[in-house]
TrEMBL record:
<feature type="signal peptide">
    <location>
        <begin position="1"/>
        <end position="18"/>
    </location>
</feature>
<dbReference type="InterPro" id="IPR037019">
    <property type="entry name" value="Glyco_hydro_7_sf"/>
</dbReference>
<dbReference type="InterPro" id="IPR001722">
    <property type="entry name" value="Glyco_hydro_7"/>
</dbReference>
<keyword id="KW-0624">Polysaccharide degradation</keyword>
<comment type="similarity">
    <text>Belongs to the glycosyl hydrolase 7 (cellulase C) family.</text>
</comment>
<keyword id="KW-0732">Signal</keyword>
<keyword id="KW-0119">Carbohydrate metabolism</keyword>
<feature type="compositionally biased region" description="Polar residues">
    <location>
        <begin position="423"/>
        <end position="437"/>
    </location>
</feature>
<dbReference type="GO" id="GO:0016162">
    <property type="term" value="F:cellulose 1,4-beta-cellobiosidase activity"/>
</dbReference>
<keyword id="KW-0378">Hydrolase</keyword>
<dbReference type="Pfam" id="PF00840">
    <property type="entry name" value="Glyco_hydro_7"/>
</dbReference>
<feature type="region of interest" description="Disordered">
    <location>
        <begin position="408"/>
        <end position="437"/>
    </location>
</feature>
<keyword id="KW-0136">Cellulose degradation</keyword>
<dbReference type="GO" id="GO:0030245">
    <property type="term" value="P:cellulose catabolic process"/>
</dbReference>
<keyword id="KW-0326">Glycosidase</keyword>
<protein>
    <recommendedName>
        <fullName>Glucanase</fullName>
        <ecNumber>3.2.1.-</ecNumber>
    </recommendedName>
</protein>
<dbReference type="InterPro" id="IPR013320">
    <property type="entry name" value="ConA-like_dom_sf"/>
</dbReference>
């Protein structure tokens, strides 16, 4: 996720974080049904649920209601060091609808951007749990397709309604790290290719070393460590644009990083993960009429997104060789747009050849190829990847990398700079939060199965 942002920055207010299990609020996971399909198109309904990421939850003393983290400051008495903090602080249950604006209905999940109750909450991130309700559902999509419906008609410039996969531990790290008593049932263990430093607990320890409060977000900060893993961004989008982007790392599974490993700032291309990824954004690839309000894929109403993960030998054990995209809207199957940039006009899907040609055409560093490309993404799926759904705004780059001209000091007429129609002044979090608090993304009708089994052509 976040392919052109040097720092993960999900915003949230008046909430805290942890690893032990608290008892002040009961944890009840909202139910969400999905479908597993078989060749021929018959599908079985699976009853599942979602869990809120631990980074949004209240964290308090195990022996009282005293918060361990307030604003962007840790309580030094409860958290004198990373291990003691993890032992002293309890992660509590969530009021999904009332506090976080997260609701489910059958096969539909709705994520509201700003929720005002006793406190103000901005954005959210949830994971799909397996049938046992205590571990993440793990997906291997090699030679499979993954399909969902999305309504993002209420997502303006500067917002991101995202659906993606990351190579988290199925139990949220509970078995690997003894100080993590909460596990996936409380949304622990997040990682992605940006190696985010704002995660409060990594490897079962509080990320308090060198903790620095954010300069522009009074409730966020960053610690010494980041948390890295392979990431497949199936859908990052708002009503003005969308991108599908694989990112890879040279490590397997959730890995804590420090220093150069994290690839921060000027060391972006020296780290263990590919932060840029290899994206297919139709607008960036030269077709500015394909996706948006009133366009070929009309984002003013619901539509279906189909993503196919093809292997070199058409088996589930083969090497991942291509990621194809198509859409279905109003009963019509819509093929993905074709790139119309010089050097890219032969492509309408993601392959290693496309990625190499794109990096050359745009003058970008090819960290995707350097770290192994699509075969590594396939290896991550073979290990199992967790499904993530989120809504967020961007304190680091205003989401301009998704829906506007980016970098802002580059000539937008140069290939790869124009990524969407939003003005470069859009996406300022304070503006988006005040002007579009009711913004919502709705994901529904999630299906997975063999190629061609999840939609009607």
């Amino acid at each position: 996720m976040f392919p052109s942002v040097a720092l993960l920055s999900l915003s949230f207010l008046a909430i805290t974080y942890g690893q032990q299990v608290g008892t002040l609020t009961a944890e009840t996971h909202p139910k969400l049904s999905i479908s597993q399909c078989s060749t021929g198109g018959s599908c079985e309904t699976l009853q599942r649920s979602v869990v809120l990421d631990s980074n949004w939850r209240r964290l308090h003393s195990t022996s009282s209601s005293t918060n361990c983290y307030t604003g962007n400051t840790w309580d030094a008495s409860l958290c004198p060091d990373p291990v003691t903090c993890a032992q002293n602080c309890a992660l509590d249950g969530a009021d999904y609808a009332g506090t976080y604006g997260i609701t489910t209905n059958g096969n539909s999940l709705s994520l509201k951007f700003v929720t005002q109750s006793a406190q103000k909450n901005v954005g959210s991130r949830v994971y799909l749990l397996s049938e046992d309700d205590t571990t993440y559902e793990m997906f291997n999509l090699k030679n499979q397709e993954f399909t969902f419906d999305v309504d993002m008609s209420q997502l303006p410039c500067g917002l991101n309604g995202a659906l993606y996969f990351v190579e988290m531990d199925s139990d949220g790290g509970k078995s690997r790290f003894p100080n993590n008593k909460a596990g996936s049932a409380y949304g622990t263990g997040y990682c992605d290719t940006q190696c985010p430093h704002d995660i409060k607990f990594i490897n079962g320890e509080a990320n308090i070393l060198n903790w620095t409060g954010s300069a522009n977000d009074p409730n966020a900060g960053t610690g010494q460590y980041g948390t890295c893993c392979n990431e497949m961004d199936v859908w990052e989008a708002n009503s003005n644009g969308a991108a599908v982007t694989p990112h890879v790392c040279n490590v397997q599974g959730q890995t804590r990083c420090s220093g150069t490993q994290c690839g921060d700032g000027d060391e972006r291309y020296d780290g263990i993960c590919d932060k840029d990824g290899c994206d297919f954004n139709s607008f960036r690839m030269g077709d500015q009429t394909f996706l948006g309000v009133g366009k070929t894929v009309d984002t003013s109403s619901k539509f279906t997104v189909v993503t196919q993960f093809l292997t070199s030998d058409n088996t589930t054990s083969g090497t991942l060789s291509e990621i194809r995209r198509l859409y279905v809207q109003n009963g019509k199957v819509i093929a993905n747009s074709k790139a119309s940039i010089a050097g890219l006009d032969a492509y309408d899907s993601i392959t290693d050849d496309f990625c190499n040609a794109q990096k050359t055409a745009f003058g970008d560093t090819n960290s995707f190829e350097n770290l192994g490309g699509l075969p590594v993404m396939g290896d991550a799926f073979a290990q199992g990847m967790a499904l993530v759904m989120s809504i967020w705004d961007d304190y680091a780059a205003q989401m301009l990398w998704l829906d506007s001209d980016y970098p802002t000091d580059a000539d937008p007429s140069q290939p790869g700079v124009a990524r969407g129609p939003c003005p470069t002044t859009s996406g300022v979090p304070s503006d988006v939060e005040s002007q579009s608090p009711d913004a919502t993304v709705i994901f529904s009708n999630i299906k997975f199965g063999p190629i061609g089994s999840t939609y009607t052509s």
